[in-house]
Predict the structure.
Amino acid sequence: MTLAVENALLDGERVGLRCEGGAIAAIGPEVAAQPGDEMLDAAGAHLVPPLVNGHTHAAMTLFRGSGGDLPLMPWLEEKIWPVEAKLTDEDVYWGARLACAEMLRSGTTRFWDMYWHPGATARAVADAGIRATIGAPLFDLHSSPEELREAAHRGLEELAGLGPEITPALAPHAIYTVSEESLRWIGELSTERDLPVQIHLSETEGEVQECLARHGARPAFYLDRLGLLSERTVLAHGVWLDPEELALVAERGTTVVTNPVANMKLAVGGVFPFPAARAAGVAVGLGSDGAGSNDSLDLLADLKAFALAQKHAAADPTAIDAGEAWAVATGATAPRLGATALEPGAPADFLLLDPRSPELGIGELTAGIVYAAAGAAVDTAVVAGRVLMRGGEVPGLEEVVVQAAGRAGRLGL
Ligand SMILES: [Zn+2]
């Protein structure tokens, strides 16, 4: 299957793009369609890379609007965990399908997921045509390290051999829900099988205080001691990482994904120290976190919140500029998140942004994307050379919304 895009604007220059076998075959001013190509006339739309959502719990779309005004621990213990115990594959499948549709509509074509029934999420991702790194959440707070190991192996089995769009990962929930013994084991398994690891870290100040009291070290140093701070590891949040921790995280090649909207909604009381992380050389990405705690999956909207929170926390409007914020959202500043460039040989994943949208018609494009636009400015999304959205329409969305609402109703949500 071949696809040709004509009349797109890339950095202000009119270009064509051809896709073959899911990859970009050619891109540039001279590139034109060839006989037999599926044709897509961009009509002057802006060609940009898609966004990478570095941390979410896709199927938590089912929990949207449930207990949204509670603090983190009561929210988890009273509203989330009891319902999660009743989830089935079909619940997770439709919750994740809804998440995939929302992400696609707002320009995200790759995400990192931590959720129950990972095989069901993988099926949803494959059916939606996008890409994800997926791990079953691992806890042994109310179970044993043996049970955690079984759960880890079961999760990996569900995700084995599913094709290039799905990357299996290990997803220990957090340092306060997984024992030292299990964290150490997860680090060894990650090394042995070259598996990515995603974990919530330093989301609240209380977590840091508890770690100091129980382990005599701040969270990043504690993880490092257990062999879990590596270039394969992605830390979600990192709000309370201090300068010494940031230096260590940079040295280990570990990625941090900041989730500004979820952090503000759960009122964690701080802002991820992006300027210090940048100065230390930390790879940083952007995430939405789950729809249970955001509640949107529109990463383009979160991008504005990210930039504003950084400026506000630093009391300095130059703390981050639009170009840098955009690079964080597209994964360009965090290579381990899996983003690819718009160049020949790379996967044919890209967006067309509508130049006639009110937010992008006037002024510098990147500033418009970061500060003025939200997901609605995305006109077209292409993944692996397949047009998954055109004119802002995701085929089959209506059915997905109905099915997901039905599953949420079944769960009493
Ligand atoms: Zn999370």
